[in-house]
Design brief:
The complex is a heterodimer. By secondary structure, chain A is mainly β. In chain A, 0% of the residues lie in helices and 52% in strands. Chain A contains no helices and 11 strands. In chain A, the strands form 2 sheets. In chain A, strands 2, 4, 5, 9, 10 and 11 form a 6-stranded mixed beta sheet that branches. In chain A, strands 1-3-8-7-6 form a 5-stranded antiparallel beta sheet, with no helix packed on it. Chain A is globular and about 40 Å long. The model of chain A has no long low-confidence stretch (mean pLDDT 94). By secondary structure, chain B is mostly beta strands. In chain B, the strands form 2 sheets. In chain B, strands 2, 4, 5, 6, 9, 10 and 11 form a 7-stranded mixed beta sheet that branches. Chain B has a 4-stranded antiparallel beta sheet with strand order 1-3-8-7, with no helix packed on it. Chain B is globular. Classes of the chains: A mainly beta, B mainly beta. At the A-B interface, strand 5 of A face strand 5, strand 9 and strand 10 of B.
Chain lengths: 108, 116
Amino acid sequence: TQLLEQSPQFLSIQEGENLTVYCNSSSVFSSLQWYRQEPGEGPVLLVTVVTGGEVKKLKRLTFQFGDARKDSSLHITAAQPGDTGLYLCAGGGNKLVFGAGTILRVKS
Amino acid sequence: GAVVSQHPSWVICKSGTSVKIECRSLDFQATTMFWYRQFPKQSLMLMATSNEGSKATYEQGVEKDKFLINHASLTLSTLTVTSAHPEDSSFYICSANRQGSGSPLHFGNGTRLTVT
């Protein structure tokens, strides 16, 4: 069974600070996805990384896929209150395996 | 706009009653849909895979008689929580992807079930 370990589980920071969320596994994934979820809503896809070593940027968010395709990271630069939410990494094709999630709270 | 619609968005029911949740793919056909359960501030836990025209595949530990899944058409899957109890209170989410496209999953907005 493929497992994804996500850390940290909770992050509370001030507006303007940078942060990184990690997603690690002992298994190789053909792709990994990052989602953001707000309370009472379904997850919304942020990005899919496919190639080992790939780096994708989405405004202030930078996503990296490890060379061995076993890990990924999400880095947010100059976090804003609107970034607050639950961030989830997931992999494994249609039958997704989710990490435990990172609750991010950005205080103004 | 939303490509997967889930209904209702919230429901309150009494213990012992059954509740049906619908998941529809709006502009595409989905031979497979997935049902998840999520507890507050936790990740999504896959409950079952809904297969159009055949029986659903349940994950270990999920009672198939408790959580009835029907996927009667290529655009609709339903999850019925039978004889609901307070411990069934949770956030239920479905997902689907476009048939054969290899695209990522699209998620519904979830259903908040509260059993009193």
